[in-house]
Amino acid sequence: MKILYTASEGLPYSASGGLADVAGSLPAALNALGNDCRVVLPLYGSIRQELKDRLNYVTNFTVPVAWRNQYCGVFTGVENGVTYYLLDNEYYFARNGLYGFYDDAERYIFFSRAVLELLKFIDFKPEVINANDWQTALVPVYYDVFYRYQQGYEDIKTVFTIHNIQYQGQYGLELINDLMGIPLYHTDMLSYDGDVNFMKAAIEVSDRVTTVSPSYAWEILDPWYSHSLDRELVHHQYKLSGILNGISQTIYDPATDKNLARNYSLNDRLGKLVCKKALCDELGIASGKEPIIGIVTRFVSHKGLDLIKYVFEDMIRLGYKFAILGSGEKIYEDFFTEMHYRYPDRVGLRLGFVPELSRKVYAGADMFLMPSQSEPCGLAQMIALRYGTIPIVRETGGLRDTIRDAGGENGNGFTFKTYNAQDMLDATVRARAYYDDKMRWERLVSTAFKQDFSWERSAKEYIRLYEEIS
């Protein structure tokens, strides 16, 4: 199949979260199965120069943004066997950072329209266009309004993937006339609760809507998870499904990871003990036989940090040590900083995000804590398993789909259901009991090493979905 995959970020060019991992891995997995999947991204000013140097200029054209026409340059590159098209407009994209600007709506209105205009200038007609999150949600909308019946655009199907429903692209209704250039008789399609809502419009017009895990697909039909979009999703749930994300088995491999003090694998685990000691040394934790809980996350409330705050010292009293990496809201940064100063030999902390250190945490920790309030998919728990580190998670979204409690059949971690600090503490008590029983713990770690969350499985499910609608 011919697939055009469009997103606001994607590795190796740009990244701020899990979307970049998906856009950087799924197309390659689709191509490995014999398809032709190509990716369209913005040409951000923050892209590394060595990657820019490998790009080739193709052409340029103008893109209608309501009453104005804006320049768009096209550059192409091949990375990991995938053809990338990077769309250039320095006014919109030559900035320090990806998002958070006053004109984000205009920037991604331009980009979404440019994705479709691009097809007039390249020798590639996709059978399916897969757009992702609110930044490219207008691609299926513009296709439905302006392009569906144009010559060369016939019979293209559209898929819209929701990675995080919290960010929907909500703006004032004046955007329809001022920036979108869409006739006002389409207002009902674009509006939701009195605002323009990019994501709602994409849900309405796309042929299929997907999320990044099966559990998240039915969770977002509930107002608790949907950030008010449940009414629209319930109305269109006949075209909603969830496909679990994967991780790269080569990028995340303790047997070859150059960031580790010593490599290891299922059949040679001595390196994990070396990595544990190296992690302790780097973060200033006292070395010992006590279990280390790793936490690598953004410091925001929906990651379950309130639960951690509530029983943190109870977990210290259970004998746990902590290796914590992340940044975000000041209330959580201040809390973990205080715990670090209060228990300097038991709590290692690094504020910010250091990719190399995150690998060391995955490798050197014994357990990995993710008590999320909501988690569309989550990659960290899969990476932890890949490194033989046992996840402790709340049963929500992709965490429910990937982690099975050790108390049941084929367990690969420890889970709890309710968003409750005492239930989370109980999961850590059970994990500690397993850890102290060396034979049971070694069996659990062996199970972790054997888990398969490769992208090939996910890619096959996407192909089935694309074929259903083509």
TrEMBL record:
Its EC number is 2.4.1.21. Pathway: Glycan biosynthesis; glycogen biosynthesis. It catalyses: [(1->4)-alpha-D-glucosyl](n) + ADP-alpha-D-glucose = [(1->4)-alpha-D-glucosyl](n+1) + ADP + H(+). Residues 288-427 form the Glycosyl transferase family domain. GO terms for biological process: glycogen biosynthetic process. GO terms for molecular function: alpha-1,4-glucan glucosyltransferase (ADP-glucose donor) activity; alpha-1,4-glucan glucosyltransferase (UDP-glucose donor) activity. Keywords: Glycogen biosynthesis, Glycosyltransferase, Transferase. InterPro entries: Glyco_trans_1, GS/SS, Starch_synth_cat_dom. Synthesizes alpha-1,4-glucan chains using ADP-glucose. Belongs to the glycosyltransferase 1 family. Bacterial/plant glycogen synthase subfamily. This is Glycogen synthase. It comes from Ruminococcus albus. The lineage of its organism: Bacteria, Bacillati, Bacillota, Clostridia, Eubacteriales.
